[in-house]
Automatic annotation (TrEMBL):
Residues 1-20 are annotated as: Disordered. It is found in: Membrane. The chain crosses the membrane at residues 48-68, 304-326. GO terms for cellular component: endoplasmic reticulum; Golgi apparatus; plasma membrane. Keywords: Membrane, Transmembrane, Transmembrane helix. The lineage of its organism: Eukaryota, Viridiplantae, Streptophyta, Embryophyta, Tracheophyta. InterPro entries: CDC50/LEM3_fam (IPR005045). Its main location: membrane. This is ALA-interacting subunit. Belongs to the CDC50/LEM3 family.
Amino acid sequence: MMEVEGSSTSMNRAPDQSSFLRSRRSKALYQFKQQKLPACKPVLTPTSVITVFLLMGFVFIPIGFLTLRASRDAIEIMDRYDVECIPEEYKSNKLSYITDASIPKNCTRYLKVQKYMKAPIYIYYQLDNYYQNHRRYVKSRSDQQLLHGLEYRHTSACEPEESSNGLPIVPCGLIAWSMFNDTFTFARESTKLKVSRKNIAWKSDREHKFGKNVYPYNFQNGTLIGGAKLDSKIPLSDQEDFIVWMRAAALLSFRKLYGRIEEDLEPRNVVVVNVMNNYNTYSFSGQKKLILSTSSWLGGRNDFLGITYLVVGSSSIIISIIFMLLHLKNPRPYGDNSWNKKSLSG
């Protein structure tokens, strides 16, 4: 009998607990709908506002100096080569030079190292006045085809580079068709520098966005050749320079990673760069630059973040000083609504 009574008591207690929980939930929901939940409503007094702006300034300015220092620690060498690599007789007609396949495009540039550069030294190419963010250009690709290859047939978005000679193009689209095709080799005096072009693309792109069994097919076989050609024997997931190019830039000036120099460079070293100046930027007044850069704990050289912190911190301190002077000149005690009475009486 005792066991039966205990079990019946526990059974009666369970409905009571569930009904209690339901009532609490409904009460909380009612308070939420009626906006009666507890809330923090800080009163912004002049003192608290001035203190907040001062604290922002004292925090942001040191962070700005630290990030600016980290940015300046990254050594960078930049060389614009698109103009200098044009032969003298073609200076006035650059377009005929770049479109004539019979003219040799090789060019030699000399980069002098001013400060010690510790490996790895990142190699970038930079394109200016190049609108990779144009709507039609950005849409002219097929992510499903890049992942599945010829199995995916719905590639109408790739127009006008969807097919050639009646056969589908893999990879299709204007972005792939216009791939950058300048090449660089590097030497120090007479010794060739060790350059790695592995792991220059994002790991997530290599593993999840480009198929391991997808090979270029019928690519750059049309009458109008755009940029680089791809090796039809290597899957897209292993052609990292192509993967880097397919990540479209948001601004009209952008850099893309070309490779890494795996040797240190000493001050007063001269790096000899042999350039194959193949890529046509002359038809739209674009610019091409080669950059060698080290990195710091913040990344490459970019002063924007440090300057932003300094501007925000300095502005906060200036605003706090202005508020402080106004408060000292015309103090108004908390809760004083005399200004409202004067306006009503007037």
